[in-house]
Design a protein that fits this description.
By secondary structure, the chain is mainly alpha-helical. The protein is built from 17 helices and five strands. The protein has a three-stranded antiparallel beta sheet with strand order 1-4-5, with no helix packed on it.
């Protein structure tokens, strides 16, 4: 059994998804008002989801992912992985190749490490960068990488006698330092239990990080511990590291020349048009009726002067036989509109009512509505009203 318990921390939950919102819906609520509330809640939920599934306000994270991916692919294609390995013996002690301390952070040795690290970076780095801001996040990445490099060199010197002679390729220290910040500043959205084990929405990310830590012991385990230690040192504000920021010159240069290279950061646009399933199936075979009579079904918030169903041609008759969305069909059943349609009573749009009211100013509104309900189109309703006055 799986038990899920929701907490207030984390991304906002749209109001239309809560139980209280449904408990307040009364039978007297009109279909237009219900459509508006559902559409507004759906759009808020969609925007929140698209914002979460994008690199908006996370340019540095996207840059790190692009650089790690491209460098790992190029290193494998040109067969130069041996230049990115880091070993105390013989690289540092015998050949004095200290440049390997910095180069081994640039690429991963295989595709599995690259894939797992990209997943962790996407799920962790985007949220941490949105909390820090891009400039502070870039400064944090630089400080964590420098701290990790120094600590890795010291670990090789101190523990090479117990078997720690090398570190795996890739920015593992930066990733685990980032995971430490993620665990401290990003709260969990929900908790649940599987077979009595308490978990939350961040548990899968920690499992991926655990896989990275135990992939190549003892070097991978040491890199994970060094990354966590670097994150702790940065967060403890030792030597005023949290106050460090990249120079404005570097920021301007990156914004002008490097930012366009990583592509757009805007989330994908969520369309307001909701096409029903049957409309998609019949798109290849258009109906015999005029396309001007097709009702445009959207999830956009209606304007104050147009609360009625919008038509491509306001003066054309409404196509009540057309298919609607699942939500609209459910609202029609809830408000009784479907029963009126099955009984042969047409639901006239407000545009037709306004048009006939202007043509027959002396006729009451309820009479005009009744004539439209019992007529297949507006022309028949006009004939009915003219015959009743003669």
């Amino acid at each position: 059994m799986t038990r899920v318990q929701m907490y207030s921390a984390g991304p906002p939950v749209p109001a239309f998804l809560g139980e209280k919102q449904f408990s307040r819906v009364q039978p007297s609520v009109s279909s237009d008002q219900f459509d508006t509330s559902v559409s507004s809640g759906s759009r808020q939920a969609g925007q929140c989801l698209l914002h979460h599934m994008s690199f908006e306000n996370a340019s540095v994270t996207k840059g790190l992912m692009v650089v790690s991916g491209l460098s790992s692919i190029l290193v494998g294609l040109f067969d130069v992985k041996h230049y990115f390995h880091l070993q105390l013996v013989p690289h540092l002690s015998r050949h004095h190749q200290y440049w390997r301390l910095a180069f081994h952070h640039l690429a991963f040795s295989n595709s599995s490490d690259l894939f797992v690290s990209e997943l962790v970076l996407y799920n962790v780095g985007v949220q941490v960068e949105r909390q820090f801001g891009s400039v502070k996040f870039a400064s944090f990445a630089l400080v964590s990488t420098l701290l990790g490099t120094i600590l890795e060199f010291l670990a090789l010197l101190l523990f090479h006698r117990v078997g720690l002679n090398q570190f795996a390729m890739g920015p593992s220290a930066l990733i685990f330092s980032l995971l430490y910040q993620y665990s401290r500043i990003v709260p969990s959205s929900y908790n649940y239990r599987i077979f009595g084990i308490p978990l939350n929405n961040k548990s899968m990310i920690y499992l991926l990080a655990l896989q990275m830590a135990i992939s190549r012991p003892p070097g991978s385990i040491a890199a994970a511990l060094i990354g966590v230690l670097a994150g702790q040192i940065y967060r403890s504000d030792l030597a005023n590291l949290k106050a460090y920021r990249i120079s404005p010159t570097v920021v301007k240069f990156s914004t002008r020349f490097l930012l366009p290279l990583i592509g757009s950061l805007r989330p994908p646009r969520r369309s307001n048009r909701a096409l029903p399933d049957e409309a998609r199936a019949n798109r290849a075979t258009p109906p015999a009726t005029s396309p001007q009579n097709e009702e445009v079904i959207t999830t956009a918030r209606p304007t104050s002067d147009s609360a009625a169903p919008r038509l491509r041609n306001p003066t054309a008759p409404a196509n009540v036989e057309g298919t609607g969305s699942v939500v609209r069909e459910w609202v029609d059943e809830l408000t009784g509109r479907a029963e009126r349609a099955n009984a042969g009573i047409r639901v006239p749009p407000e545009a037709e009512i306004i048009q006939l009211t202007a043509m027959f100013p002396d006729v009451q509104r309820n009479v005009i509505v009744a004539a439209l309900q019992r007529s297949p189109n507006i022309e028949a309703a006009v004939e009915t009203l003219l015959s009743s006055q003669s």
